[in-house]
Design goal:
The chain is α+β, with helices and mostly antiparallel strands. It has three domains: about 110 residues, Orthogonal Bundle (Butyryl-Coa Dehydrogenase, subunit A, domain 1); about 110 residues, Butyryl-CoA Dehydrogenase, subunit A, domain 2; about 140 residues, Butyryl-CoA Dehydrogenase, subunit A, domain 3 (Up-down Bundle), CATH 1.20.140.10. It is about 50% helix and about 15% strand. Strand 9 and strand 10 form a beta hairpin. The chain is globular. Bound molecules: flavin-adenine dinucleotide. Flavin-adenine dinucleotide binds next to strand 1, strand 3 and helix 12.
């Protein structure tokens, strides 16, 4: 099980129970499958998804009135996310991925829309969903999207191309961000829920990736896709604000996921260093190795505490763009550092696929890129200091 971070939190019995459920599922069902999922390359482990669904782990963040677990506080979500991702970050992120879809629906949707789009996710066997923002010509600058939404009577007609969309090959519904007027930049961005079987929506072949292969990514092509006005989330031009609110929470969850990954690397490297003997002593007795482990432990705590702070402030209703960016930035860079350090601690074995640490190093890299690169997180933090 490894080391737990002492954070001073007093969890309720219910929170504790849920975190323990996630910890057991991670050890028993996630970690043992991780290598095979990595080697399968472009297939999500839907059997693990189904098992997790049976225990409520894929829908705990969906409101009770939609059949979900109703764990709507971000702090509990963060603690669960960390445990799942201690098992494997790719599979952990897959298990909670419907939370990325439900967030803009909750932020922007009417009660009727929330019921229509979220109720399917609160069942025992929920389908996967996806959120499509990124385009071939629009990544960090999300306000520059070109996918167009043209009003035509009681519907909109969507045209464009999305890329890198997580879960696209499996998703039953997409939240698609389009623009009613590209000249308006962020003030033109508008969100729509588009069912997968809508004529004109096509998903491309799966991408081959460096890591986190449990989630499959692909392009989404929109060719005269007609969406009824009832599927527009919020008013025209409100999509960008809904997306930023979604990122406020989802970046904190990335902080949690990367803390879980960094903790896994620390636990594995520590156990190895206690066992492996060189120059007549376990290598942990060599100060260079011990100090590297000490730095890893310190970084794990740093990531965890920043994440807990951001989630606590979020739950109290504060604006958290800065704290959320810090949690993601520090979490992802510490996960990169710690997985690299774990490879180093295992020496040649660290470089072998027989051990998980090389895979964890590949997995970590993604979190410095998706949902805003580290540069973009620094941009957000520096704006809070007065930079333009
Ligand atoms: C595995 C994976 C899953 C993803 N899942 C999804 C998904 O489900 N839905 C979705 O919509 N998108 C998804 N994405 C897309 C992801 O959010 C983008 O890749 C990310 O936002 C970066 O955009 P980009 O790749 O176009 O890079 P670019 O924006 O082209 O950036 C390239 C480089 O320039 C730097 N840069 C750009 N602008 C600035 C600036 N102003 N200041 C300093 N540096 C800057 C960046 O930091 C980066 O180093 C996913 C990506 C990956 C790899």
């Amino acid at each position: 099980m490894g080391r737990t971070v002492r954070d001073g939190l007093r969890l309720t019995a219910e929170q504790q129970q849920f975190v323990e459920l996630a910890r057991e599922f991670a050890a028993g069902e996630i970690r043992p499958r991780a290598r095979a999922v990595d080697e399968a390359d472009t297939e999500s482990p839907l059997d693990v998804w189904d098992k997790a669904s049976g225990l409520g782990l894929t829908s705990f963040m969906i409101g009770e009135k939609f059949g979900g677990g109703g764990v709507t506080d971000l702090l509990t979500q963060v603690l669960v996310q960390q445990e799942l991702c201690h098992g494997d970050i790719g599979i952990g992120n897959l298990i909670t991925s419907n939370g990325f879809f439900s967030a803009p629906v909750e932020h922007l949707g009417t009660p009727e829309q929330q019921d229509r789009f979220l109720s399917p996710l609160g069942t025992d066997r929920p389908p996967l969903t996806a959120v499509a923002v990124t385009e071939p010509g629009s990544g960090s600058d999300a306000a520059s999207i070109r996918t167009s939404a043209r009003r035509d009577g009681d519907s909109y007609v969507l045209n464009g191309q999305k890329t890198w969309i997580s879960n696209a090959p499996y998703a039953s519904q997409f939240v698609i961000f389009a623009t009613v007027d590209p000249a308006k930049r962020s003030r033109g961005v508008t969100a729509f829920v588009v069912p997968r079987d809508t004529p004109g929506l096509r998903v491309g072949p799966p991408f081959q990736k460096m890591g986190q292969r449990a989630i499959v990514n692909a392009e989404v092509f929109l060719d005269d896709v007609r969406v009824p006005v009832e599927n527009r989330l919020g008013d025209e031009g409100q999509g960008f604000a809904g997306l930023m609110r979604t990122f406020d929470a989802s970046r904190i969850l990335i902080g949690a996921a990367t803390t879980g990954l960094a903790r896994a690397a620390l636990d594995f490297a520590t156990d190895y260093a206690r066992e492996r003997v060189q120059f007549g002593v376990p290598i942990i007795q060599h100060q260079a190795v011990a100090f590297r482990l000490a730095d890893m432990a310190t970084r794990v705590d740093m990531s965890h505490l920043l994440t807990v702070r951001a989630a606590t402030l979020y739950d109290e209703g504060h604006a958290v763009a800065q704290e959320s960016a810090m949690a993601k930035l520090v979490g992802s860079e510490n996960a990169m550092w710690c997985t690299h350090a774990a490879v180093q601690t295992l020496g040649g074995y660290g470089y072998s696929r027989e051990y998980p640490v090389e895979r964890w190093m590949r997995d970590a890299k993604l979190e410095e890129i998706e949902e805003g690169t580290s540069d973009i997180q620094r941009l957000i933090i520096s704006r809070g200091l007065g930079a333009r």
